[in-house]
Prior knowledge:
Shape: rod-shaped
Radius of gyration: 24 Å
Helix content: over 70%
Number of strands: 0
Oligomer: single chain
Amino acid sequence: MPENSFALDLDVELMGEWPRDLFREAIKMAWMDWPYRRLPDAQALRSYIRQDLNERTGKLKRLELLAKKLEFRRKLAEKTEEMRRFSRPVIR
């Protein structure tokens, strides 16, 4: 258990960002496997779910990047159409 309340607040904030199912899985695994006579801290609990958490955050980051790329393309198409309206016609 953290020595001071600030560290405990940070642990709670960190664990609050985890998906509910992964939090429950970490608690369950720690309950069955924890070798020490103290409560596990956030980093110890995270070690049980590290791989799953990294996979999910990786997927989320890829989706956010895709959304940014699509938004950029949409804005680019808008600007292109706007510029075409104001450009002179090409005479051949």
